[in-house]
Amino acid sequence: MDLLHTQLNNIQRHLAFVAVDPINWKLYVQSFSWAVTIFESYLLIRQYPLYSKTEPPAVLAQHFDPGVFEKSQNYGKDKAKFALFSGIFKQLLDSLMLQFGFYAWSWSVAGTLLAKVGYGAEYQILQSIAFVFILFVLSSIPTLPLPAYGTFVLEEKHGFNKTTPKLFITDLLKGWGLAFVLGAPFLAVFLYIFQWAGDRFVPWLMGFMISFQLIMVVLYPTVIQPLFNKLSPLAEGDLRQRIESLAGNLKFPLKHLYEIDGSKRSSHSNAYFFGLPWSKHIVIFDTLIQQSKPEEVEAVLAHELGHWYYLHPTKMLAISQFHIFTVLALFPAFLHAPPLLRSFDFPKAVAAQPPTILAFLMFQMILTPLEAVVSIAMNAVSRHFEWEADRFAVELQDKLQDEKMSDMGDRLGRALIAIHVKNLSTVWVDWLYSAYHHSHPTLTERLRGLESFQANRQKKSQ
């Protein structure tokens, strides 16, 4: 532990200038956040001409009924225009909040409100929670028209929306309630660790955050998910038998197999698994069951079990923890930096002893350009894992010595095509747009990959 803290102290010595140099951090954040927004807009502009193509890729031509490809292209155009507008609108809102001292004002309001109920400045954790709540609510209100438009105009226009206005408002209020019920205690413990551990907070904070994630793995299916969707045991039948047999043969620790009423909100389809290492839950959207044959859904689940087989969730967790560790290792230099808060319009009295939540929030803003680069790297890792999971499905016959699995690659290909066609997903994708935005390879890339995996498997078996 002493070695860790010695290395962390070395990092702080290199960043000592942050605590004394009057750097214009506001200008830095404004410049780089706009640079990221402009770059994302550029990617949309690169992608947009591909929605004018009148024919799908040759490998997919036979799978699109007349008019369906045109619908998918129109859907893509509308989503791109909406993404362009919403991205610029959100950035403009963030920029105005930053420029006119909204964060300093919110901190002051939080302190004033607490003072009226008898809590002074010494109750910094309470003021921090109030500050975050004020910030969250007031910054969310101007953006409410965006999800409403996306749901009731864009998704409605293209036949996907199943959400009623009542359900939309209920979901919104439930989300806000959960954010407070879970966020307030999380933030309280998060900030208490800083008070208790001082500058040696990094390992303790890492331990707390990992513990919180494990707790959420347990709470999500039992407490949170049922607030929004109904999870029912998958009905007896061919599909259930296929999945249970597959899980049993792979020794996948399946505890529950659910069907979720995704059609309650949308016609889009999906499937996923979650849980602790010894207790996993598989969830299948009712829309996927309706849109695909049992053998195709089985292939989708074979791909998902490939992620489990190769420990992809664990690896992603390790990578994300390393990323969090890197961020926290840099933070102490910004934690004790009055010039940082002064740059963001906080008064001298507040900046002299920077509250942890304020320093951390400003620090997160400064990391904006770095996080954009990190997201590209994380997408690259995720796509590599997707290739491995696809290869796992193709090679399942060899792993299980079961001839019934010989066509798993073909089944997965058909399932992917059906999902893309039913969801009107874009099939022409610019490579740079995909690298930045997509955690999965494109459909045509995956189909070529499946063909390659099957060819390699056949060569090995000869």
Automatic annotation (TrEMBL):
Lineage: superkingdom? Eukaryota
Keyword presence, Endoplasmic reticulum: yes
Q: How does this protein sit in the membrane?
A: Multi-pass membrane protein
An annotated GO cellular component: endoplasmic reticulum membrane
Q: What InterPro entries is this protein classified in? A: CAXX_Prtase_1 (IPR027057), Peptidase_M48 (IPR001915), Peptidase_M48_N (IPR032456)
List the Pfam families hit by this protein, alphabetically: Peptidase_M48, Peptidase_M48_N
Which cofactors? Zn(2+)
Biological processes, Gene Ontology terms: CAAX-box protein processing
* Annotated localization: Endoplasmic reticulum membrane
Q: Where does Zn(2+) bind?
A: 303, 307, 386
Q: Which residues form the CAAX prenyl protease 1 N-terminal domain?
A: 47-230
Q: How is the cofactor bound?
A: Binds 1 zinc ion per subunit.
Q: What transmembrane ranges does the database entry give?
A: 125-154, 175-195, 201-220
Q: Which residues form the Peptidase M48 domain?
A: 234-452
Name the chemical reaction catalysed here: Hydrolyzes the peptide bond -P2-(S-farnesyl or geranylgeranyl)C-P1'-P2'-P3'-COOH where P1' and P2' are amino acids with aliphatic side chains and P3' is any C-terminal residue
Sum up the protein's function in the record's words. Answer: Proteolytically removes the C-terminal three residues of farnesylated proteins.
The family classification in the record reads:
Belongs to the peptidase M48A family.
> What is the name attached to this protein's record?
CAAX prenyl protease
Please report the organism this UniProt entry assigns to the protein. Answer: Hebeloma cylindrosporum
